[in-house]
């Protein structure tokens, strides 16, 4: 790749990551029943509603999972890979494109949860304002993952449940997403 292509790839990655982050947070906020009146949630809902409103007529929410937002995340990830392939002068196989898109979408969800649980555990050490909108959102999204282990992983007065959750999320990225992405890339490249 030349310098211009590298720069375009960087910009492409940043733009698509920002868009995917909003829709992933929308899925997680609805699934975890985050406070709708939180200003951060209001921003996420306001930004994603124009895209999701027409889709939700066709794709209903299933058990608090916004399937329309999941579809948008998958389409954005596939579109990112399609644009990268076009920049490289390639035509990927459709099946490989979808599998790589699924792998990247799953990886993005896991990475988002890693960041949220890490931020939540870091915030708990500093006793921030519990009513700050960002603190409330991070708590409402990270708490459901840590809650089942809370109090069971205590050693010497320290709760290691966030560490165990983070380890599980990182292992899921390695053992689940890695093989799916490798398979998708093989099909993507036509091999």
UniProtKB/TrEMBL annotation:
Annotated organism of origin: Luteibacter sahnii
Regions that span the bilayer: 65-83, 95-123, 160-180
One Pfam family recorded for the sequence: CCB3_YggT
Keyword line: Membrane, Transmembrane, Transmembrane helix
Alphabetical list of InterPro entries matching this protein: CCB3/YggT
Name of the protein: YggT family protein
